[in-house]
Amino acid sequence: MSTTSRKILLSALMASLLAGCQGWPMVGPDYQKPKTVTPDTWQVQTPVPAAQTADWWRQFNDDVLLEIITAAERNSASVADAYKNIASARANLVAARAMGFDGLSATPSISRKAFSFGGDPTLLTQQQISFDTSWEIDLFGGLRRERESSLADYDAKRNLLQDARLSVAAESAKAYNDYRFCQQKVRLYERYLESKTRSAELTASATAHGFKSDSDNALAQATQAQAASDLNDQQMQCELQIKAMVALTGMAEPQLRERLAPRDFTVLQPGTFDVPSVPAVLLEQRPDLLAAERDLAAASAQVGVKEADRYPKITLSGNITPVRYLNSGVTNNALTWSFGPTIDIPLFDMGQRKANVSAAWESLRAADSNYRSKARTAIKEVEQKLLTLQSYNARQPSLQQAADNYAQALQAISQRYEAGFDNAIDLETTRRNALEADYALTQLNQNRITTLIELYIAVGGGWQGADTPLAANTPDSTEKQP
After folding, report:
1. Could you report the per-residue pLDDT of 369-382, keeping only the tens digit for each?
2. What pLDDT is recorded for position 272?
3. Edge-to-edge strand list for the sheet holding 122-137
4. Source organism's superkingdom (predicted)?
5. What pLDDT shows up at residue 472?
């Protein structure tokens, strides 16, 4: 057999060996997604299924809200960190896919030297380029397990980006909702103070004419001062919320104040959305749970990586170097090459590799516990928000009826006062009762919408995949392009 034939046969055998290794069994556990993580049914009543939309925020019919969510996401440090983590995970995945193959490197060189044996010097020029490569044979699956782990980690980081975006959207929506209700509360406090001021003036006049006691006058003045203090406190709360939204969105405060300028306020009425019929569906709808499951898969693969380190490694290395010699106008060419395996056999390491395997198993158990704990927490969050929302919905008709009845009473006493059958003090007292009923209804509506936002996030925030848009102008892709 000729030298060329032997080379071809050897190359074919090594290629078959390398290809065959990919199908060999791998050490370490083969990952299977946990099955029994959530209960079979909800333990609270769920609303009637409705169409769930990823752009649920649009159903508020409020362009300012969408603008704030978009600005907050664009300037969020947590979202930026999530993008950074994706980039790092992608780099690790590329490196893992290349593991075992060191690539092909070329090392060109040229040298010129002179030598003499007593006569005229002879010049010798040597030109060469050396090509080197090596390939680790994945006998026990350590490299494949490393790729599994890196891919799972990359998927986890992509899911965590969605979780960060959902958190920012929820925080922005709640801050905006609180501020709009704060504006409405300021109006109620202003009207309440006007009524208290009117009552204090009437009481002072009645006291001066002997119809009211000094204690009644002092009490009226005290309640007026308290109402002024309450108004001041509510205005301060609105200012604090402005500052918080500036920090959240990165918008200039004058621009934000202009966008949040007082206007005719109507209670936000977001549309409904679907709560999964069974808790198990929640595992596929919440990006934080999907990230935890992918972390579990990565931990499982790392057990195989550490286990494979305990076994021998075979690396095939090759080199080919063409050389050209120029000597006094005479050119000579040469070719050198080498090819062969290197075996790395772990003999004694003071138990380090075994300890690494044990640590990997503990990491796997911790990841499994973390996944199950997050699943239980998700179930708790959904059920708690459902219960809270049901309570608000049950209370809303009663508070609405109370507000309506107080409004009717105010209208009736106003008519009696204008006809001269009732006094101004009783009129203002009834007015304040109506304002207090309106305030209670306003507070309930604020809490209800806040809970609805939190429930929407708890069931996954309409997340349907890596390209789910969360605000008005968010990019279609979850990964920033260079």
Report:
1. 999 999 999 999 99
2. 64
3. 101-115, 122-137, 313-327, 330-344
4. Bacteria
5. 38
One-letter amino acid of 415: Q
Instruction: Report the alpha-carbon distance of residue 71 to residue 256 in Å, rounded.
Output: 11
DSSP 75: T
Cβ(189)–Cβ(97) under 8 Å?
no
Tokens 């055998």, residue located: 13
Six token digits for residue 447: 């809490």
CA 160 to chain centre: 4
**Cα angle vertex 63, ends 59, 67, to 5°?**
115
- Of 50-54, 216-220, 285-289, the range with the lowest mean pLDDT is 50-54
And the tokens for 304?
Answer: 């195989």
Nearest to 141 by CA among 313, 318, 12: 313
Q: Which tokens is 390 given?
A: 């049901």
Q: What is the per-residue pLDDT across 429-446, written as a single tens digit (0 to 9) for each?
A: 999 999 999 999 999 999
CA–CA gap between residue 205 and residue 424 (Å, rounded)? 12
pLDDT value of position 182:
94
DSSP letter, residue 252: -
| Average pLDDT of span 45-51 | 63
Instruction: Dump pLDDT digits (tens) for 79-128.
Output: 999 999 999 999 988 888 888 777 788 889 988 887 766 667 777 788 88
Pairing status of strand 101-115 against strand 313-327: unpaired
Residue 227 binned pLDDT confidence (cut-offs 50, 70, 90): very high
Q: What is the pLDDT of residues 167-205, one digit of tens each?
A: 999 999 999 999 999 999 999 999 999 999 999 999 999
Q: Which architecture, in CATH terms, is 20-100+140-310+352-458?
A: Up-down Bundle (1.20)
Instruction: Write the secondary structure of 350-416 as one string of H (helix), E (strand) and C (coil).
Output: CCHHHHHHHHHHHHHHHHHHHHHHHHHHHHHHHHHHHHHHHHHHHHHHHHHHHHHHHHHHHHHHHHH
Rg (CA), the chain: 37
- Domain 103-137+312-345 listed as CATH 2.40.128: no
- Given a contact cutoff of 8 angstroms between Cβ atoms, the answer to whether 450 and 177 are in contact is yes
Q: pTM of whole model > 0.90?
A: no
Q: 155, 80 in Cβ contact below 8 A?
A: no
Dihedral sign (CA 158, 163, 166, 171):
negative
Angle, vertex CA 278, rays to CA 365 and CA 274, nearest 5: 120
Neighbour count for residue 227 (Cβ, 10 Å): 21
C-beta of residue 136 within 8 angstroms of C-beta of residue 17 = no
What is the C-alpha separation between 304 and 308, in angstroms, rounded?
Answer: 6
Task: Give me the chain's average pLDDT, please.
Answer: 84
Please state the domain extents for the chain.
Answer: 20-100+140-310+352-458, 103-137+312-345
